[in-house]
Amino acid sequence: MQRLNLLSYNVQAGIYSRQYSDYLTNSWKHVLPHPERLVNLARIAQVLRQFDLVGLQEVDAGSLRSSYIDQIQYLARQGGFPHWYRQVNRNLGPFAQHSNGLLSRLRPVHITEHRLPGLPGRGAVSAEYPLSNGEHLAVAIVHLALGWRARRRQLDYLARLADKHPYLVMMGDFNCGCDSKGLRNMLRNAQMRGMDCELKTFPSWRPRHNLDHILISRPLKLVSARVIDYALSDHLPLSMVVELPDGLRFAESFQTTHASVSGAA
């Protein structure tokens, strides 16, 4: 009741990538359905079962390309997560539902969607979990822009969000790594840590960039962090074990059975 086993994973809508040329040859899979997608998602779900809380990026909430399957709900059921949430950031109607997803074995008491600065289509979703001292642990799942100008504004927004939560985990695809001045400024201003230049996640078949991060506020303890060599997307999944400060516990027990799944659009 004091540790949390976390995973952040950009699943590329269930598209299996093996090399750079797949971006061209598999481009049609971003628009049209393909039977390999569900097989790939089932394999991804087997990895997710090991974790207490999972943040997903580039997941489809149910459209033509996903055969109208809500991939967040599907992964929640296959992974045995009793609580899940979808945040649709770019709604292209029946053609695509670009989303962030939360899968959790703990019941969040409050969930907030954040529309990040810049062009529409980028967002963050934060969930709050009660602690034994009456405070809350906030977990934010983010997917930032490709352009550095928009990303800098989004990092400033996340720094302000961190000011509101003394106990905070922020994870996702930041689309920038150790060489990002904006990310380093955000870490310093928000008094967060966890960026490790050796935890390279992209591209999955030859990881050279650390675009994915799990960042934690200073009071939390970083027990371990690793990249999982499970190349099913164009990103590798990133995991971290965090521990609450001494004397703190989660106010609710973890649920590890296939309970009824709850979610919201």
Structure, briefly:
This protein is α+β, with helices and mostly antiparallel strands.
Topology:
Blueprint: E1 3-10, H1 22-25, H2 35-48, E2 53-60, H3 71-79, E3 83-91, E4 97-104, E5 110-115, E6 123-130, E7 136-143, H4 148-163, E8 168-173, H5 181-190, E9 192-193, E10 212-217, E11 221-227, E12 238-243
Parallel strand pairs: 1-2, 7-8
Antiparallel strand pairs: 1-12, 2-4, 3-4, 5-6, 6-7, 8-10, 9-10, 11-12
* CATH level-3 fold name: Deoxyribonuclease I, Chain A
The total domain count is: 1
Mean pLDDT: 92
What percentage of amino acids are in beta strands? 25-35%
Descriptive notes:
With 265 residues, this protein is an alpha+beta fold. It has a single domain, classed as Deoxyribonuclease I, Chain A. It has helices at 22-25, 35-48, 71-79, 148-163, 181-190; strands at residues 3-10, 53-60, 83-91, 97-104, 110-115, 123-130, 136-143, 168-173, 192-193, 212-217, 221-227, 238-243. Strand 6 (123-130) and strand 7 (136-143) form a beta hairpin. It is globular and about 50 Å long. It starts with a strand and ends in a 22-residue tail after the last strand.
